[in-house]
Amino acid sequence: MSCRKGMSVGQLKEQAKLRKEEEARRRREEREAALAVQKQKEEVSSDEPTLPKAQVGSRKDSSPVKPLSTILNTSRVLSTPHTPDQIGQLWNAYHMSRSGGTGRGFLCASVPLDLYKKMSAVAEKYPTFIVPIRRPKDTTVSPVEGESDSAYEFYFLQWDFHDAPRLPSANEDPFVKPSSSESPNPKVSTVLFTPLEEYKLRATFATPYLVLTNYTDLASTHGLVLLRGEVTPRSGASGNYMLSQEDAQQLSMAIQKFYLWGNGEGEGEKLLRTFHEKPEDFRWEDLLRTADWGI
């Protein structure tokens, strides 16, 4: 099976690998540059005693993901008992208040830990896929007998995994160095959705239209993973986004469709497995039949 413009599934996966390596290289260079600047500052001000700045709940690892504590006041949440349902309600209310109270440009959900573990285990093995979105055909063009009345837009899906966050605390002490012991939380993950044509053209420089982040900070304490979706805004157009809210929601549902496997081999599971293990048997026609899952 080959994609348009002659790019095969194997070539797409190789491009995804290069994109991941390029992003890792950029993050490494950014860390090295930041360390060099910090060292220079320390040398300049070494004779002036200063107190460390308080950064309550800030991440001390190399993860590029915005810390959950910059979105949700985890210390305050943990200072009093909250059930998973209550935390989920706070999470939803916060995102619904964005964009002038419309919630546009954002998605959110609270995911039970057991479901997240199932999906992330599949994603570790099969981190990329292609997701179709149904589009109406141009009515000005005469229909061709035997062709569908719909067109499709394809998005390249790519999972990435980042350092597991340490356990949050209600009594964060900014002057105490975090424990170096391994976190009991699972890894944080991101899922990028990029238009397939743009991805094939620009690879590592392609702009994702939707980024989903699975925050696992409260996984061990509350059995909960907080999902946040951010739609890329259009440059110079306030309040306008690269995707409609409906399209963003449908793309996010693809995670369940293809990565939440049941006991038997469902259609989504079969397609994802074939895409990676037998790309020569992967059929676009089979994929297009999945474009009508409900929102």
UniProtKB/TrEMBL annotation:
InterPro entries, per the entry: ATP11
Cellular localization per UniProt: Mitochondrion
Coiled-coil zones: none
Spans annotated as Disordered: 1-67
Entry keyword annotation includes Mitochondrion: yes
One Gene Ontology biological process: mitochondrial proton-transporting ATP synthase complex assembly
Leader sequence residues: none
Keywords: Mitochondrion, Transit peptide
Compositionally biased region (Basic and acidic residues): 14-44
GO CC annotations, alphabetized: mitochondrion
Name of the protein in question: ATP11-domain-containing protein
Organism field: Leucocoprinus leucothites
Native organism taxonomy: Eukaryota, Fungi, Dikarya, Basidiomycota, Agaricomycotina
